[in-house]
Structures are given as C-alpha cells and as structure tokens.
Amino acid sequence: MNELLKIQHLSKYYYNKNALNDVNLSLEKGKIYGLLGPNGSGKTTLMKIIAGLHKQTSGEVLLNNRPLSYKTKANISYMPTENFFYDSFKVKDIVKFYSDMYEDFQVESAFNTLEKIKVDPEFSISKLSSGLVGKLKVALALSRNVELYMLDEPLNGVDVLSRDVIIDLITRSCGENKVIVVSTHLVSEIEKILDSLIFLKDGTIALAGDAEELRMSRCTSVEGIYKEVFGND
Amino acid sequence: MIKLIKYEFIKKYRLIAITIIASITLNIYLITRSASGGIAFLSLFPMIMGVLFIVDIIKMYSDDLNKKSGYMLFMTPNSGYKIIVSKMITAVIEGLAILLLYFIFIIINGAYMTFQSGVEVNFNDIIYIVNNIISGSFGFNLAHIFVFMLTVLLFLISFLTTIYTAMTIRKSIFSETKFGGVLSFVIFLLLNWGISFVSSKLFNVLDPYYYTFDFSSQVTASELAHTFLPMNILSIVQIILLTLCSGYLLEKKINL
Questions:
Q1: Do A225 and A207 meet the contact criterion of CB atoms below 8 Å apart?
Q2: N- or C-end of chain A: fewer Cβ atoms within 10 A?
Q3: Does B2 touch chain A (CB under 8 A)?
Q4: What is the pLDDT of residues B78-113, one digit of tens each?
Q5: Which residue in A14, A52, A86 is closest to B74 by CB distance?
Q6: Rounded to 5 degrees, what are φ and ψ at B191?
Q7: Domains of chain A as residue ranges with CATH
C-alpha cells in the first residue's frame, strides 16, 4: 500500500463562502505534488485542514488510514504562508522550540540549512525581512523527519537565487516514504520538480494527474496547463 | 506539558521583567517621598496587578486563538486538553507569583516604615507573633489560612476556566461570526449566569448550616472547611467540566 493520505468528500463552508466542495484525493508516497490554483481556490484551506488548524464541515481525511487527530500532527510538517513565528523570539529560540516540540526535528540539519540560506540564528524574528522569514519557514519545515510535508507558497518573497536553494532543499527532502505537497503561484519555477499536479478551482478539483502525462497529453508546460485551466478566471 | 508552560513564560519574560522593575521603581519613589508612600503603594499594587493579570491571562490565550503565532502552538502534537491545562497552570503560577511579590513588598515596606519611625524592632516579638499564628492564639492558625487560600485558588481556577471556555466556544462553534471579542464576553456572561443558576439550585438543597454560620464567633479550621465545602466542590466540578469542554472543542472544532 503506497497511499499516505486519503481525502474523501471533504467540504468546508464558511458563513459566506464555500471554500472546499466535495474534494476527493489520494496522495502516494515518494511523490512531490503541486497544489495549484489562483487566490481563493481553497489551497490554503485544504492544507490547514490536513494540518489540524481548521476543521472540515464534512468529509474525512485519513493519514496512514487513521483519521486526523493531534497524534497525526507528529507526522505532518506544515509550513503556513504567513509569518507565524513568535515576534519576541530569536531564530535560535525558534529552532529550540521546534526541537522541544517535535521529536523528529533534526537540530544539526536545521542549523546547516540556515547557514546555507544565510539566516543568522542570532537574528530577531521581528527584524527579519519577509524573504528571510520565508527561508526560515522552509528550513524548519524541511528539518523535520516526517512522512507528509506541506509547503504553502514556499517561494513567496524569496529572492531569485534563494529560490534555487529552496527548490533543491525540497527535492532532497523527498524520499520513497514521503509526500511533499507544494502550493505555489510561481508555477514555472517549480514545475520541474513536481511529479503530480492538483489544480484546485473554486474549492473543487478541476484537474489532477501525473505531471508528465498531463504535459504529454496537452503538449504544453505546467504553466500552459495552468493557463488553460484558469485562463478565463 | 512542562515544555508548553516553559514556553508560555519564555514568551512573556520581558513583560515580567518590566513589571517587576516598574513595581520596584514605583515603590522606591513612593516610600522615599512621604511616610504614607509605602501604604499607598501597597494599596495600589493589588489593584493595578489585578487588572494587568486579568488582561495578561486573556491575552495569553487570545493571541494563540486569534493571531497567526497561534499556529506555533496548534501545529504541535499536543492534545487540546494538554494545551488548555497548560494555559491554566501558567495563569495560576503567574497569580501566585504576583501574590508572593505582594507579600515581599509588604515585608519590605513594613520593615522600612518601622525603621523610619524609629521604633526599635525586637526580633523576639516577631517570633512571638509567628508562634501565636501557628498555635492559633489569634483565633486562626495555619490550617485556617490553608483552607482560605485553597478556596481562593479554586475560585481563581474556576474563573479562569470560564474565561478560557468562553473564548474557545467563540473560536470553535462561532468561529465564522463577526465581533469576536464582544461575542466571547457575551458567552462568558452566559456561562456565569448558567453556573450561578445551577449553584443557587444546589445550595438550596444543601445543609442549612452553610447559611446560618456565625462568622463573628471563633471558628475551627474544620468548621471553616465545612463552610467552604459546597463552594469548593462546585468550583472543582466547574473546573473539570469546563476544561473537558474546552479540550474537546480545541481537539474537534477549532478554526484558527
């Protein structure tokens, strides 16, 4: 059985909006998934439900055939798109927090990555630029040793040179027992590492499948498919 | 649990340091200005710290529920029950620390004012007073103080659980409604009204001794404990039920 995450009839309603509508998905181990869609398509809501920060209105999410609970959070590394760090902390305090809270967190690997992406552990979070916060978020999320990684807009606000470093980090974090889900607007920059694509439109799955097969069948790049799917929006 | 409490204090260590330094500075300023300055400080301190304490314990939980930094806590593999209990323990430790700080100021200011008045302090007198308290010669002893402190502590925790439950209900069942702060307050009032209603019904069927007790006469510690028993039992039941309710909602219904 290669399936890590199974989503069945998942819906999420807000008082004035239908964020997700009857989403069905199955994510297999050893793959990097691209979760693609414009703003408001439901990508972040879907990730937050899986991470346990939101609760679905209906439907079920199973991780290794187990319903989501606080216990499954130990096997999920989620990187929200917002700056969610405590303002009063330094970078090294955040690393210590992760190390205290997650048994799987690899401190040495985290410090090595921070050095590589030029984030000084002595920096105060409140004084970091959005680009540095972005790099820190990715470094910490990928320094955990879990089966499911979810990165919400990991390239947002990050300079062009650092984007390659982050893409490299994502690629190296993927193993045969792991799943990485990346949501991004910068499709062209990340499409080379994506194994599978999920296009989310108005809370429903507009298109999903193997990246290579979709490229071949449509004779265009992932960016081209993106434009085809969302072109009229 | 200990790690969660540890990080609650790490998050607010600056606030704690500023509060202590400001209190010491204000105290020095007041006691060196006039003879009644020490008394003025001791009157002001509980009022100001009481307000700050309430604001801080609300903010401690509210920030986690309403700000993005709450993801730091809620992404960790800790159950909702563990999170809510850790918040309550943090608040209780904070409350006790304020109380301890107040006692220290009482001793310091008392000693300073005695020294200033020129009265010769006899340490045998202090030992005599302490001995009298322990032996109960003043009409109360350490057991009385313990019973009273326990009642205050249980009341404080039950008050905290009511506040936290109101905020949890608002962020789970009513997470999509607007005017969050006002709604939390309305839920808090409704919870208090419900608790008062249930407690008044319960007390009506309890021992009438509870109501006819004469506080002007000397009471033993066990009589005092007996008097406070229904109130304390109710506080304990309230703490357990509301903690379970908050923990469940954090676990199953939360929308950050």
A1: yes
A2: N
A3: no
A4: 999 999 999 999 998 998 899 899 989 988 888 888
A5: A52
A6: -60, -45
A7: 30-44+75-230 (3.40.50.300)
B212 pLDDT exceeds 60? no
Interface confidence (ipTM) of the complex: 0.88
Q: Is A207 on the interface with B (CB under 8 A)?
A: no
Give the C-alpha distances (Å, rounded to integers) separating B179 from A199, B80, B174, B175, B184. Answer: 35, 24, 10, 10, 9
- The two tokens of residue B115 are 């020294």
Tell me the pLDDT tens digit for each residue of B1-33: 899 999 999 999 889 999 999 999 998 988 888
Give me the residue label for tokens 């809501």: A45
- Provide the number of CB pairs (under 8 Å) joining chain A to chain B: 65
Q: So where are chain B's domains?
A: 2-252
